[in-house]
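User: I'm putting together a small comparison set for a docking exercise, and I want a reference complex before I start. The sequence is below, and the ligand is zinc ion. Could you produce the 3D structure with the ligand included, as structure tokens?
Assistant: Of course. I'll restate your input first, then give the structure tokens for the complex.
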Amino acid sequence: MTLLLKIIIGACGWLLGMAPALALALPVPLCATQSAETGADGRALGHLPYGQGAEADLLSAPPGFSIGGPCRLQRAAADDLIRLLQAADAVPGVAGTLRGVSCFRSIEYQRQVFCGQIGADKRFASAAERARVVAPPAFSEHATGYTLDFAIRPSPDCPDVDACIIWHPAGRWLLAHAREFGFELSFPAGNAQGVSWEPWHWRWVGTSPRAPGAAAARAVFARAAANYPAIPGLYLKPPRVVSTLPQPAFPLYFPRLPGM
Ligand SMILES: [Zn+2]
């Protein structure tokens, strides 16, 4: 083998060895003028990557639940949402107040939502700022079809997708009981992902690993559950939360589920 050939083979091997590192450093295009680099764990601007769920598998939420557009979820999540709403309707002060402001969002629609408010004359100056409150396209749990944003109606004193939802009885009820229907809070206060606290944003993983559809959902969120656990969540022993709120209408406790 000639020296030149050895050099060529060696250079090719070095380049192949470098390929993963080079790939990690490549920026991901998000909007026409915005991109972001992904970290070693695949996150972009704090958010983990998610593929898009098959739209044929999605079911619509009950009539009247959705505000602002259709609310579609994976079948098992939609079934448990119906059970959750039925339970909520039996609680005075909560009954009839829970709505869905956003559920499944395609990656392309997420791009419109994310990019539409970035610019010199817009609410956010950069993708990094925008990502504090909305996930970039291809990095949103909403694309999976397992996640929804709850809203409250009527709610004259608290806008949608705002942490003030927990001051409403229905928001407090979700914190205490959504786990019983397989939903967990993706972005708890002070989460290590650096995403804002989102007490309105819940993802479905099933009440147990054996629940219909739960294995598929838990596989989708496995990396998130391992690195950034939901609180209250279904993978963790529920923490005891001591409320300092004045006259809490509902106790902030998280009952243990059978088999957990
Ligand atoms: Zn959300």
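Strands lie at 27-31, 34-37, 58-60, 72-74, 98-102, 147-152, 183-185, 201-204. The pocket of zinc ion is lined by residues 102, 142, 149, 201 (CB under 6 Å).
User: Thanks, that's exactly what I needed.
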